[in-house]
Automatic annotation (TrEMBL):
One of its GO terms (biological process) is L-amino acid transport. InterPro entries: AAA+_ATPase, ABC_transporter-like_ATP-bd, ABC_transporter-like_CS, BCAA_Transport_ATP-bd_LivF, P-loop_NTPase. It comes from Reyranella soli. Keywords: Amino-acid transport, ATP-binding, Nucleotide-binding, Transport. It holds the Pfam family ABC_tran. This is ABC transporter ATP-binding protein. Residues 2-233 form the ABC transporter domain.
Length: 233
């Protein structure tokens, strides 16, 4: 579905990504792993159309999308749930969710809302509550629910476990697995290496703007270099 080839990208004169290749197939969870500053969010934001790459190609379902307006990319079914949740704090939970179907999924808004509330029953209890008053875990649920309202065909999740308690991290990864089993392709961008490799089909490790390792998630989990760098043994 998504194919990134020789991607070079950054900000101003600073090149962050230096020739990145990455692909996500239909029905896959693909993990993009790396420490802070490795370039993970830069890749997300170029794929999502928030920035124009310096070079290389990005295709979604065979259509070139590098530099396309972000709204067109959402229209095609490629949706990002950004790092830090980015909910609208002064709008209600319901209003935040409905905004998710502003570009795509509007015709089935009521049905999609029902689906999201079935996935996240806690949000159903807080529909009238202002999003800014939710806990961190509930805001993450809301951010993902808002993404689901747009009927994504591929969902980019940027650091969904960031700032969550260990118990909520377990819940979050279980949820991601469930969404994938329902047929959703997911690009999971994470620092949590162990949990990500446990649910992903394939993975890439990004270091200093380049792909340092890639392969089947189960194989990478046993890779000595990855274990030394990220797991401490």
């Amino acid at each position: 579905m998504l194919e990134v080839r020789s991607l070079r990208a950054g900000y101003g004169a600073i090149e962050v990504l230096r020739g990145v290749d990455l692909a996500v197939g239909a029905g896959e969870i693909v993990a993009l792993l790396g420490s802070n500053g490795a370039g993970k969010s830069t890749l997300n934001n170029n794929v999502s159309g928030l920035y124009r790459p310096f070079g290389g190609t990005i295709t979604f379902d065979g259509q070139a999308i590098a530099g396309a307006p972000s709204m067109r990319i959402v229209d095609a079914g490629l949706v990002q749930v950004p790092e830090g949740r980015r909910v609208f704090p002064n709008l209600s939970v319901r209003e935040n969710l409905e905004l998710g179907s502003y570009r795509r999924g509007r015709a089935a808004r009521a049905k999609n809302l029902e689906h999201v509330l079935a996935v996240f029953p806690r949000l159903n209890e807080r529909l009238a509550q202002l999003a800014g008053t939710l806990s961190g875990g509930e805001q993450q649920m809301l951010a993902i629910g808002r993404g689901l309202m747009s009927e994504p065909r591929l969902l980019i999740l940027d650091e969904p476990s960031l700032g969550l308690s260990p118990l909520l991290v377990e819940e979050m990864f279980a949820l991601i697995g469930r969404l994938n089993r329902d047929g959703l392709a997911i690009l999971l961008v994470e620092q949590n290496v162990v949990q990500s490799l446990a649910i992903a089909h394939r993975a890439y490790v990004l270091e200093n703007g380049r792909i340092a390792l890639s392969g089947a998630a189960a194989e990478l989990a046993e890779h000595p270099e990855l274990r030394k760098s990220y797991l401490g043994h």
